[in-house]
Design goal:
alpha+beta; six-stranded antiparallel β-sheet; 15 helices; binds iron/sulfur cluster
Length: about 425
């Protein structure tokens, strides 16, 4: 998973670029990078670690009126390449499923590779074009998978979203400046307002504060990633016209309608379960209360690169609130259940130890059955509890008094989108692309 941020202005953008990239930290915490154009040359700097920790004292020499930024879970971006169109820097979010085939074809054509990353394949395919728009179009015709990308060359930005629109991409504007980014939460504090989402298949050219649609690659269907609204995106973002916060409340409301239960309080697995729990509490007219507090300095467990790191971070991040637990029956809402081990070995243990009366779990999305091929997570089927177990078997495994998941139909209704226009592959194990 990653976040991309691009900004172009009549004035120096370095503060907006730094903060905009920082506000995408939740999309990737392993690497970050920034590239700017100072009027004569392209600058690029990447770090291992968090944006604020690594860049706040390392922005010298990166001034410019145009720039791109990246946060990542798996590799350093932006990447810089020299081509017949001149030097460019590029970063992307997504996953190229046929990367290995493309690399071997490119090698046969005489290309050499420095890494085996998706971004190097994308950059080399784009570099074959007559110009950047043509290059992006040619690349789009060859790759299978999902991408949202921004490219910087000679003071201009090119931005593109794949024709199925898997990954989110939104345009923001303020006086004399324009941004294109993964999420709107990255720009609201910088004074930008949402202009619109990047359309499926759209290729944009940005010059100063001016933005032009250069091409739209057609497709008969979209595949907006449903998991963005369920878990991935920041709750303050609006994605493809739907507020993440409202989507999460809708999912909680659907759970309360389909799976009511008599309990004392509704609680959340913080932070991503909070919106779902508030929706459940409002619909069922039960009080919402905190039984766990997320420690502010812990990372996002789902986005840690290894299972051992995810397990350790999951255990560290949630602190129980004993006064709210003892002698009470609780409905606890979570965004999803991946393996079920965090629920079983951490949450349920902490709740029982603190004298909970009953635990009923409500999950905002259907049981996760299949890996994501489009850039969100790299889990194998074998890791997913619902791949091998029924809902009742998962309930027994996590040792709770009740367990229920939203249905696919309720998910589509909560997001206000037809099921054939959103990606639901992680629940159906069927891939349309
Ligand atoms: Fe999103 Fe799941 Fe589809 Fe991946 S498989 S794009 S996480 S809905």
């Amino acid at each position: 998973m990653s976040g991309i941020f691009a900004v172009s202005s009549n004035e120096n953008i370095i503060d907006d670029l730094f903060l905009g990239t920082f506000y995408l930290q939740h999309r990737g915490q392993q690497y970050c990078g920034i590239s700017t154009f100072d009027g004569s040359s392209l600058k690029i700097r990447t770090h291992r670690g968090l944006v604020r920790e690594t860049f706040s004292l390392d922005l010298a020499g990166l001034d410019g009126k145009v720039g791109i930024g990246h946060t990542s879970l798996k590799d350093r971006q932006p990447l810089k390449l020299d081509s017949k169109m001149g030097e460019f820097t590029i970063c992307f979010e997504g996953n190229i499923i046929n990367k290995d085939d493309l690399i071997s074809k490119l090698k046969k054509e005489g290309h050499s590779f420095y890494t085996d990353t998706d971004i190097e394949v994308i950059a080399k395919l784009i570099a074959q074009g007559d110009d950047f728009v043509d290059g992006i179009q040619r690349m789009a015709g060859k790759v299978r998978g999902a991408y949202a990308l921004v490219l910087l060359s000679r003071g201009k930005i090119y931005a593109a979203r794949d024709k199925h629109a898997f990954r989110p991409m939104v345009i923001g504007r303020k006086n004399g400046a324009v941004v294109v980014t993964s999420e709107s939460c990255s720009f609201v504090n910088l004074g930008f307002s949402i202009e619109r989402d990047v359309k499926p298949g759209e290729i944009l050219e940005i010059d100063g504060p001016n933005l032009e649609t250069r091409k739209i690659i057609p497709s008969s269907f979209t595949q907006y990633c449903s998991f963005e609204w369920v878990y991935t995106a920041n709750v303050a973002s609006t994605i493809d016209g739907l507020s993440v916060d409202i989507a999460r409340r809708n999912l909680g409301v659907a759970l309360a309608r389909r799976y009511p239960v008599k309990v004392d309080i509704v609680a959340a697995v913080p932070n991503s379960g909070i919106g779902h729990a508030i929706g459940y509490a409002q619909e069922s007219k039960l009080p919402f209360d905190n039984v766990f507090i997320k420690y502010d300095y812990a990372s996002r467990s789902y986005t840690q690169p290894t299972q051992a790191e995810r397990d350790r971070e999951a255990k560290v991040k949630l602190i129980p609130v004993p006064a709210k637990i003892e002698g009470r029956s609780v409905v606890i809402c979570d965004d999803s259940i991946v393996r079920g081990t965090q629920m079983k070995n951490d949450l349920v243990v902490k709740l029982r130890k603190n004298g909970v009366k009953e635990i009923h779990v409500r999950v905002a999305c259907p049981p996760l059955k299949a890996p994501c091929l489009y850039g969100v997570a790299t889990r194998s089927k074998a890791e997913l509890a619902a791949h091998q177990k029924s809902v009742e078997e998962i309930r027994q495994y996590i040792a709770t008094d009740g367990l229920a998941f939203n249905t696919l139909e309720d998910l589509g209704e909560a997001l206000g989108k037809p099921l054939n226009q959103i990606c639901v592959s992680c629940w159906t194990d069927e891939y349309k692309v």
